Amino acid sequence: MMTKIDDFIDNITPSNYFITKSMEMSKIKSSGTLWYTKKYIVLYDAIFISKKIDTKEGINEIIRNFNNYISTLPESVKDDAERFFFPKHADLRGDFRTYNEFAGVVDINEDKKSYYSNVNKYYFIYLMNIGGQSGVKAFIKEHLYRPDFEVSNLPEIIKEFQKNNPKKKVDITGTINDFHASLRNERQILFYYGYFHSRNNGAGNDNEFSSLTPIGEIAVKANSKEFSIIWEHQKIKMVSQPVTIEFPSIKNCQNCFSDKFKINYSPYFSILRCLEKYKQIFPRFYDRILSRSNNDNIDDIIKNYDEFVESIPKVETYLDSFNLRTENKNEDFEKEIKKYMLGIRTDFYKDNSENYLGFVSSTSNNGWILQNEEKFNILFKIYEIIENYKLNKYNLLFDRCEKELRKKYESVYTGNVYEKNHRIKMEWDLYNIKVEKTILFSLVICEYLIFNRIDVGSIITEQVYTYFNEYFINILKSLNLTKKQEIIREIKRIVEMIKVGELVEIDEIEENSVDLNYINQFSSLNTEDLRRKIIEVSMENIKPTLERKRDMRVISLLKKLQLIEYSDENSLIPCECCGEKTFIKNNNEPYIEYHHLIPFSIADGPDHFENIFGICPMCHRKIHFIKDSLKEDLYFGFNQNNHRKKNIADRLRELYKINALKSYQLEYALSEKMITEAEYEKIVA
Q: Lowest mean pLDDT: which of 115-124, 424-433, 654-663?
């Protein structure tokens, strides 16, 4: 009969361990907890996504976001934080080189797109003060901060280095492209963790269509307290290997078996469980045992900790039989656990021991030890409730992702072609990039308890409301909680659920009603005026996700226009999917339902007339509930029967042109087969 240890070893398969991207974000000597990550996200958005870095308004917004973050840090660290976010060489409040000064003049023979792609990267390095540790890279970085530096000077700078170091052979083009490698690798972590989105998780070409996500939007505006909570939110949601992971080369490895491949649905909480029970985690245990745990065996590992520790030599012997460097590459395992420890550490020098959520520190041998049991116990109790909620709600999604990963894994070691399931990838992306309201609100309650050193039974609702209103405005907005009575209701609800030990989902709070006075004032408008008003209202609705609410004005105006232009003598309006006419209600109004092509609630689809179709009840039910394999016929119907004779791809192209479309929304359209791969590429070209 196999023991638990034998079963664990027998089910180990290569490259099946906790991993997102083999990089770390923490800069323990130069910054406090999450300072570096905050600065990275804000500047990356400004330079690469929103591209507001070259405007005065954009710079002022960055300054506001940094000041907002610093304002909620402990008083003892604010001066250091000021110096980190506004360093002497690049103080955005005064002494810095602007983007346009940095870019200089593009040579007439230079490819403009390629040149500005390099300008973006080098300007990011300049503002972040990263890279350039030694050799030619250090030489480039030294020039980077000179007042006369321009990106066009790079070839001459590298030639100068070569002249001074004749024994070192330097490839000019290769050096220019490799200088900013840390930018490329670190950004992938933030794509994996849902702050940015692109089809290729930041690994594609530099001009790939990418977007700030709903989580990223909150992070950009967040103060330090909010930012810490958002980071915890994303760690809690992460699984040991997301469906977007890229496996290392294991082709022809004899020990790979896809049926043994399993993931841990709660890697972060598994780490916390070990800390809760044994107060420390040493590296060999994490590398060989914990990081290879999955949903089936994690309980056994926690319960039989000593036995699993004793089995480590036996596990290592088995791992050696794989003959794969990745299985014993200790730094990869160190980097991964550091991502989970980031945010809860007490040993960042610049924190001055005042990290609100800090309770663990690293040891000299790269292990981890629990330092503050009081904080940890408050947090662990609530995290345990959150984990149960997460697993109950998302278990089926994780199961689908695990099955998809098995197919992907098998293709890597067999060399067979892997056909990506776009729908499952999109399911994961939407889960990963959006706010999970119940989890996020529970984390804010948790932070309140830790900061005030009280238990949940001592909470006074009015005091919690005041605290939330002072420190968590951006998070409250993301939860669509703006009115005092709504916020107090949710505080009471979540607190009561924490007391009971079970969370249920927060209800969506949406305002779907139409202001009839608003609509009636347009009753006498002709069709041209109605069209202009529809465009005007649609453009007003192009807002960051945080600021959006469902706006029924567009639908009401569309219906008024369609009644005039497309109804028959009986006022019946044809369905824009099947082409059939609907019916007249008891009040003599024609009945029609309106559908967001990119759904408002699922993928934050824009409340814009290009994204809205008037359809019959049957088609509306079909589009939401029919088998995925049959949806293509419905989208074909949209292309054939829409009143404006404008197909889906052309509508999405219009939304893309006016920046009303996010990368994840367009990928959603592709995953649903609303558009083809060729149409996708044409839209973003």
A: 115-124
